Amino acid sequence: MKNQDSKIQWGTLKRLLSYLLPYRFRLLTVAMTSVLSTLFLILGPFVLGLVITTLFEGMVNNGGIDFYRISQLLLGLAALYLFSVYLSYIQEYLMVGVAQHVTYTLRHELHHQLMKLPIAFFDRVSTGDLMSRGVNDIDKISSTLQQTLTQTITSLMTMIGVVVMMLIISPLLTLIVCITLPLSILITKRIIKYSQVQFRQQQQALGALNGYIEESYTNHPLIQSYHQGEDMKSKFTPYNASLFEANWRSQFLSGLIVPLLNLLNNVIYVVVAIIGGIFVVQRTIAIGDVQALIMYIRIFTQPINRVANITNTIQATIASAERLFQVLDISMPTSDYGSKVPEGRGEISFERVSFQYDANKPILKDINVKLKAGEDVAIVGSSGAGKTTLALLLLRFYEANEGSVSIDGLDITSIDDEVLRRMTSIVMQDTWLFSGTIRENITFGLPLATEDEVITAAIKARADAFIRKLPNGYDTHLDEQASGLSEGEKQLLSIARVMLSDPRILILDEATSNVDSRTELQIQKGLQQLKQGRTTVTVAHRLHTVRHADRILVMHDGQIVEDGSHESLIENGAYYRHLFLKEQQNGM
Ligand SMILES: Nc1ncnc2c1ncn2[C@@H]1O[C@H](COP(=O)(O)OP(=O)(O)OP(=O)(O)O)[C@@H](O)[C@H]1O
């Protein structure tokens, strides 16, 4: 996947903005309220200046202070501020809504896309990376949408408005203030430049530390059993130290901006106060105007910093949007998927099937085989021969590069995904359970199953007995790792789930390899029940477990080299006989 680009990607920005189109009227209102609220804020210091001038002149001219005018002005000022706050509230309210709607839509699209993507995609992208796209990148987009628009408008309006007001009050003093402007921009830019390098290093150090923490926490039992705790602790130190360094530098540098700008501002205040004081004495400017000018200078520097940050934020957000769109843009293989369920009982045919995961590394080579409905077929062969791959093609987790795979006479690429999943099921070595109750785990994919159907499936799968011994029976809650269950029990649950979904084709990935012999017997019984009336394809890693299969396909280097029953293969299949004898010698 492409990396972040330092230049703004206009196409991505345009596409991101297109998500805002449905909310254009709300956005227009936000823009108008932003302009108005900023205008009101800008008028504030001017009115306050008038108050001070009135007060000052009343005292100096001995004509008495015009309290009526002052109270009028103060009331007007209060109204201005209140109205400005009210407008800010409206714009915030609308913007939060728009940003959250867009975020909701993006999350929805991403999730739907992930549910549709072929398994091959997940081989290429790590779960951590996908989670970061789904959580961090969407978060980034959300917060930018929420803040950037109003910030841009208010910052620009403030800058323009303040300059106009200052020019009205005193062009000369405005000129003095504006001369210092490039200096403050220079300071901010310089520091931002350095601190950005540090922020990037901070993110990298954080990523490395997270990766290390994840690895050491998930492998905790392994670390303990090999007494590697001390070693892991010492390996942690450099990760922690580099994050400390990067954090320290970035925070220190960004913390420098405010005091430095404050220093610069104070110098400007002093200059304006001295020159303004001289002008007041010369009666070329009112004292309230000097006061207003100083307030404007204070307001003026804030939007400069904000605008400097906005471009960085937009760039980072576009990078996030790009990462999201990369996933959304992955096109699915197109075919005339029909929701037609082919008639039949599970006949399978591989015709001239070739497949490779990576270019120029053929895994399956010209596979031609037909399996009869209801046949119990085992695939055996050396490690890496392509047994699992052949089974996965049947589930269309991957699609053949050449040739076709058919079920009951229908090419599986023309069968709707959902229909295909109802026709075929797999029981893997690694059981797939998720957090939820035992019942929810069994009814996964068939939420409308009745209680009777669930229990019958569990009884047939030999799972009912152990489920009833659990504290809450079928309502017992499992965590993500189903840590309360043994490996064998997890497999029995998986068998119950498949039993309930009642597919016509069953794929078993030698599900019984890592359990004790008593549980293995239970599982074998469950599987025997499950196999009844279905075509079964067992990917076997040990030959003795499949010697009773109706038919054994022997694979070697991506091809089926022998095909027959155990007895016939022992007699006529040189390669099978070799594998069988080797296994017996190894005492398996
Ligand atoms: N997702 C994948 N991406 C790339 N190559 C893969 C992928 N899965 C498997 N392979 C490669 O394809 C080849 C066949 O793998 P497969 O799992 O089908 O073999 P197998 O006969 O089932 O082996 P085993 O008995 O060890 O499970 C192996 O060389 C393997 O490294």
From TrEMBL:
UniProt-recorded Gene Ontology molecular function terms: ATP binding
Residue ranges of the TM segments: 27-55, 67-89, 159-187, 256-281
PANTHER family membership: ATP-BINDING CASSETTE SUB-FAMILY B MEMBER 10, MITOCHONDRIAL, ATP-DEPENDENT PERMEASE MDL1, MITOCHONDRIAL
UniProt domain ABC transmembrane type-1: residue ranges: 34-316
Classification via InterPro entries: AAA+_ATPase (IPR003593), ABC1_TM_dom (IPR011527), ABC1_TM_sf (IPR036640), ABC_transporter-like_ATP-bd (IPR003439), P-loop_NTPase (IPR027417), Type_1_exporter (IPR039421)
Record keyword Transmembrane present: yes
Tagged with keyword ATP-binding: yes
Keywords, in A-Z order: ATP-binding, Membrane, Nucleotide-binding, Transmembrane, Transmembrane helix
Name of the molecule in the record: ATP-binding cassette subfamily B protein
Intracellular or extracellular location(s): Cell membrane
Pfam families named among the record's database cross-references: ABC_membrane, ABC_tran
Residue ranges annotated for the ABC transporter domain, each copy included: 348-582
Membrane topology: Multi-pass membrane protein
